[in-house]
Amino acid sequence: MAFNTGIGHPAPLAVIEAERSHDAVTVEVAGDVDISTSPRLLTETRALLAGRTGVAVIDMTGVGFCDSSGLSVLLQLSRSCAESGIELKVVPSKVVYRAIELTGLLSTLRVAE
Protein backbone atom coordinates (compact mmCIF):
# COMPACT_ATOMS: atom_id res chain seq x y z
CA MET A 1 0.00 0.00 0.00
CA ALA A 2 1.45 3.36 -0.98
CA PHE A 3 0.09 6.86 -0.82
CA ASN A 4 1.44 9.63 -2.99
CA THR A 5 0.43 13.23 -3.49
CA GLY A 6 2.98 14.13 -6.13
CA ILE A 7 3.96 13.07 -9.59
CA GLY A 8 7.46 12.36 -10.81
CA HIS A 9 10.64 11.74 -8.92
CA PRO A 10 10.73 10.84 -5.24
CA ALA A 11 11.52 13.66 -2.83
CA PRO A 12 14.66 13.10 -0.76
CA LEU A 13 14.11 12.32 2.91
CA ALA A 14 15.07 14.90 5.53
CA VAL A 15 15.03 14.14 9.27
CA ILE A 16 15.96 17.00 11.58
CA GLU A 17 15.62 17.85 15.22
CA ALA A 18 13.50 21.00 15.09
CA GLU A 19 13.01 21.74 18.75
CA ARG A 20 14.25 20.42 22.08
CA SER A 21 13.47 21.26 25.68
CA HIS A 22 14.18 19.43 28.91
CA ASP A 23 11.03 17.32 28.56
CA ALA A 24 10.18 17.33 24.84
CA VAL A 25 11.73 16.95 21.42
CA THR A 26 10.25 17.58 17.99
CA VAL A 27 11.63 15.73 14.99
CA GLU A 28 10.61 17.02 11.56
CA VAL A 29 10.41 14.60 8.66
CA ALA A 30 10.04 15.75 5.06
CA GLY A 31 10.18 14.05 1.68
CA ASP A 32 9.16 10.53 0.74
CA VAL A 33 9.12 7.62 3.18
CA ASP A 34 9.44 4.31 1.37
CA ILE A 35 11.36 1.05 1.45
CA SER A 36 14.60 2.82 0.51
CA THR A 37 14.32 5.68 3.03
CA SER A 38 12.53 4.09 5.98
CA PRO A 39 15.67 2.43 7.47
CA ARG A 40 17.32 5.86 7.58
CA LEU A 41 14.21 7.39 9.14
CA LEU A 42 14.24 4.77 11.88
CA THR A 43 17.99 5.06 12.57
CA GLU A 44 18.09 8.86 12.61
CA THR A 45 14.94 9.23 14.70
CA ARG A 46 16.11 6.67 17.25
CA ALA A 47 19.42 8.52 17.52
CA LEU A 48 17.61 11.82 18.16
CA LEU A 49 15.42 10.18 20.83
CA ALA A 50 18.19 8.21 22.56
CA GLY A 51 18.36 8.85 26.28
CA ARG A 52 15.27 11.06 26.24
CA THR A 53 12.22 11.00 28.46
CA GLY A 54 9.06 13.04 28.23
CA VAL A 55 7.38 13.73 24.92
CA ALA A 56 8.58 13.10 21.38
CA VAL A 57 6.70 14.67 18.48
CA ILE A 58 7.30 13.30 15.01
CA ASP A 59 6.18 16.07 12.66
CA MET A 60 5.45 14.43 9.31
CA THR A 61 3.55 17.33 7.76
CA GLY A 62 6.28 17.58 5.11
CA VAL A 63 5.87 13.97 3.95
CA GLY A 64 4.31 13.62 0.49
CA PHE A 65 4.58 9.84 0.13
CA CYS A 66 4.39 7.05 2.69
CA ASP A 67 4.26 3.32 2.11
CA SER A 68 3.86 0.43 4.55
CA SER A 69 7.56 0.54 5.48
CA GLY A 70 7.02 4.08 6.76
CA LEU A 71 4.08 2.92 8.86
CA SER A 72 6.25 0.10 10.18
CA VAL A 73 8.82 2.67 11.31
CA LEU A 74 6.12 4.57 13.20
CA LEU A 75 5.02 1.35 14.92
CA GLN A 76 8.60 0.45 15.84
CA LEU A 77 9.18 3.94 17.22
CA SER A 78 5.92 3.78 19.16
CA ARG A 79 6.95 0.52 20.81
CA SER A 80 10.51 1.58 21.61
CA CYS A 81 9.32 4.93 22.97
CA ALA A 82 6.75 3.23 25.22
CA GLU A 83 9.48 0.92 26.54
CA SER A 84 11.71 3.95 27.24
CA GLY A 85 9.04 6.02 28.96
CA ILE A 86 8.64 8.45 26.07
CA GLU A 87 5.20 9.60 24.97
CA LEU A 88 5.23 9.56 21.15
CA LYS A 89 2.93 11.79 19.13
CA VAL A 90 2.72 11.80 15.35
CA VAL A 91 1.67 14.93 13.46
CA PRO A 92 0.83 13.53 10.02
CA SER A 93 0.48 15.09 6.60
CA LYS A 94 -2.78 14.29 4.83
CA VAL A 95 -1.04 11.42 3.05
CA VAL A 96 0.35 9.93 6.26
CA TYR A 97 -2.95 10.39 8.09
CA ARG A 98 -4.81 8.57 5.31
CA ALA A 99 -2.32 5.69 5.44
CA ILE A 100 -2.70 5.45 9.22
CA GLU A 101 -6.48 5.60 8.92
CA LEU A 102 -6.79 3.01 6.14
CA THR A 103 -4.57 0.52 7.93
CA GLY A 104 -6.48 0.78 11.21
CA LEU A 105 -3.56 2.28 13.12
CA LEU A 106 -5.48 5.26 14.53
CA SER A 107 -6.16 3.24 17.67
CA THR A 108 -2.50 2.22 17.97
CA LEU A 109 -0.60 5.43 17.21
CA ARG A 110 -1.15 8.69 19.04
CA VAL A 111 -1.99 11.09 16.23
CA ALA A 112 -1.93 14.80 17.02
CA GLU A 113 -3.68 17.31 14.84
From TrEMBL:
One of its GO terms (molecular function) is anti-sigma factor antagonist activity. InterPro entries: Anti-sigma_ant, STAS_dom, STAS_dom_sf. Gene3D superfamilies: STAS domain. CDD domains: STAS_anti-anti-sigma_factors. Residues 14-113 form the STAS domain. Belongs to the anti-sigma-factor antagonist family. This is Anti-sigma factor antagonist. It comes from Amycolatopsis coloradensis.
